[in-house]
Automatic annotation (TrEMBL):
InterPro entries: 6-PGluconate_DH-like_C_sf (IPR008927), NAD(P)-bd_dom_sf (IPR036291), P5C_Rdtase_cat_N (IPR028939), P5CR-like_CS (IPR053790), P5CR_dimer (IPR029036), Pyrroline-COOH_reductase (IPR000304). The lineage of its organism: Bacteria, Bacillati, Actinomycetota, Actinomycetes, Mycobacteriales. Residues 165-286 form the Pyrroline-5-carboxylate reductase dimerisation domain. NADP(+) binds at residues 7-12, 67-70. Catalyzes the reduction of 1-pyrroline-5-carboxylate (PCA) to L-proline. GO terms for biological process: L-proline biosynthetic process. This is Pyrroline-5-carboxylate reductase. It comes from the Bacteria. Pathway: Amino-acid biosynthesis; L-proline biosynthesis; L-proline from L-glutamate 5-semialdehyde: step 1/1.
Length: 291
């Protein structure tokens, strides 16, 4: 079984560690490097996982996952590169994976031994409960098998898809920042429910379950549509887009139509588009400073 080193045992490192164990990986195949002693102790006690220095953890791993803050990447890269050079001289195959937002694969490729395979991943916070979505972008030297190996790792904390690295800023703006947009929407709907006469706990339960249920319904329809039936055709007559599902719950002259008209009048679509573009621009600016 592949040996996995997680460098950085913060919230994302822990989410990955927990997910890997949950999906059946053995504790003997995992090692974590975490510089905060209290945090390292917590991880060792909670997951019975081995905690090691960066170089030791990286040297003997097939997958080296870098999960430190973007500003700490440069600092750990020298140690990782040294370990990678030793592993290379032992002919061990290594794949380097970074979840650090905004740090390009080219930075890793420049520091690691020539030709090192590097995969950049943008997960999101729902990964902490195994319900994230991770976008993978491969560097110059990654084989399809190596990319599949990384996809298998992130599969344990939610969905996985692959994009070109040039799309990572757009991914960051949509799924990276997306949970915050969602939480703001929940906050606004709960407050509105309270204004409409509901108690806060009741409004909260109603809003959160409505959001979760609607997302589950949409996911179910999308899955159905993507699964061809026995004849190889997409099942007919099934609403598969958000727009179709919205139309289905909007009866003519009804309550939902009245509510939706106000959302459109308030410019919801344009505001969401502005938010995504602003986040993408900010992600581009941060990437430039990191480089
Ligand atoms: N959390 C998310 O939802 C999310 C989503 C997408 C991407 N990411 C990316 O994932 C990365 C990690 O995020 P996070 O939220 O898990 O951050 P975090 O909580 O700060 O975790 C990073 C951990 O790595 C430790 N560390 C730093 N340098 C180290 C070193 N030289 N050796 C060993 N351990 C070291 C840090 O210790 P100190 O506390 O002492 O610094 C910290 O405990 C970031 O690059 C972020 O961009 C996170």
């Amino acid at each position: 079984m592949a040996r996995i080193a997680i460098i950085g045992g913060g919230s994302m490192g822990e989410a990955l560690l927990a997910g890997l164990l949950r999906s059946g990986r053995q504790v003997k195949d995992l090692v974590v490097s975490e510089r905060m002693p209290d945090r390292a102790k917590y991880l060792a006690e909670t997951y019975s996982v081995q905690v090691a220095a960066v170089g030791d953890a990286a040297e003997h791993a097939n997958f080296v996952v870098i999960a430190v803050k973007p500003t700490d990447v440069e600092q750990i890269l020298d140690e990782v590169a040294e370990a990678a050079a030793k592993a290379e001289s032992d002919s061990a195959e290594q794949v380097f994976v970074s979840v650090a937002a905004g740090v390009p694969t080219s930075l890793f490729e420049a520091k690691l031994p020539a030709g090192s395979p590097v995969v950049r991943v943008m997960p999101n916070t729902p990964a902490l409960v195994g319900a994230g979505i991770s976008a993978l972008a491969k560097g110059r030297f990654v084989t399809p098998e190596q990319l599949k190996g990384v996809a298998d790792l992130f599969d344990c904390v939610g969905g996985v898809l692959t994009v070109a690295e040039t799309q990572m800023d757009a991914v960051t703006a949509v799924s990276g920042s997306g949970p915050a947009y969602f939480f703001l929407m929940v906050e606004a709907m709960v407050d509105a429910g309270v204004a409409a006469g509901l108690s806060r706990p009741v409004a909260t339960d109603l809003v959160v379950q409505t959001m979760a249920g609607s997302a589950a319904m949409l996911l179910d329809r999308l899955d159905n549509a993507r699964r061809p039936d026995a004849d190889g055709a997409v099942p007919a007559g099934v609403d598969t887009t958000a727009a179709q599902l919205r139309a289905t719950v909007t009866s003519p002259g009804g309550t939902t139509a009245a509510g939706l008209r106000e959302l459109e009048r308030g410019g919801l679509r344009a505001t969401v588009a502005d938010a995504v573009f602003a986040a993408k621009t900010r992600s581009e600016q941060l990437g430039i400073t990191t480089e």
